[in-house]
Amino acid sequence: MSESLIGRRAGLSALETLKYQGDPLADAVIADLVTGGRTGVVNEVLAQFRDNDQPIPEDLPESVRRYLIDTDVPPGWVDLDRVAGTYEFFVDDGVHVASVLSFGAMVNCYAQPRPSRVLSLTHRLNQPHRRLSETSQFVLHLMGPDPFGSGGSFVPTIQKTRLIHAAVRYFITRSGEWDVEADGVPLCQQDMLGALLIFSVQVIDGMRRIGISVTEREAEDYYYVWRVTGAMLGIPAEAMPETLTAARELNAELVEATYGPSAEGIELTRNLLRLYEEMVPGKAFDGVVAAMVRQVVTEEVADWLEVPSSRGWRRAVGAGARMMRWLERSEDRSHTATAVLDKAGSLLLGGSVRTLTNGQSTALTIPADLREKWLAAGVCPVAHPRT
């Protein structure tokens, strides 16, 4: 590290220093594997490492085995009863969470110029199906009844995600196309914290924008599960606010304040909208996709990312959001209202399962217990169960 960079960091705020922090545990593993030329073999082994209960494979380099052991348990401060309680929220509203993640959170991520540039350097601007599929699967594993414990599949997902991020950091910083001193570390801890706030705080806000009722207790618990997830992803615990109120304040300061237009963000959004439109048969309804995005994100973000605007479809989607609010209020009294509400939330996730693999043999998997409950309620998309 250069002396100028050290001096610069010394005068930065705690949040700003996160721009220059990677993930030492995962970064060391990737450096060791690349130096030893063993990345291909490790990828093959880890592809079969999928469940929390599964023994760590023996045929792994020592650096990988040590990393998997060191990152195998949630932080000591976690309240697993509170995590388990959030599962009921996922049972009731998991399909709506997935829809808002797809329509809103992904687009808000693209409103951040620096992370969007990282995606451009990994040649993933034209692969929205892959990024959305990976994000959807990550959240589906999170939705299990005990995501960090026995029977779940979330811990290996987190561990492998950290290694993927570390690999991206390794190769981009050595590509000659990234200035660490000026721009910070690619996929730095500040970017990771921003993504956590988008997937938690902003998802709750987006659900409310489309008319889904979320109590403050549900919102607090949903954010709590993401805070535990953030700790397991390597985000410093002290960087993550303990309360939802503080998280909302940080979201405004750290995330929304950095939103802006970029060529990469515009292209990412355009490709994502095209993917969604392919899920809707015919051309007559193409405008509803962009209108739905505009309902979930702010007007400014939609304009920056050049999301098309149709007055007619915007009115229709706005009316739909008002109807969703009415259906939510009548949900306890009307089985019909419940069926309509849940069907609306499951359509996008079901479409994603069918198309996001882009012809590949893989498919999203839904935790078995959650799948059973969704099937009983008649809202489960077609996907592979986790057995």
From TrEMBL:
It holds the Pfam family MPAB_Lcp_cat. Residues 126-326 form the ER-bound oxygenase mpaB/mpaB'/Rubber oxygenase catalytic domain. GO terms for molecular function: oxidoreductase activity. InterPro entries: Lcp-like, MPAB/Lcp_cat_dom. It comes from the Bacteria. This is ER-bound oxygenase mpaB/mpaB'/Rubber oxygenase catalytic domain-containing protein. The lineage of its organism: Bacteria, Bacillati, Actinomycetota, Actinomycetes, Pseudonocardiales.
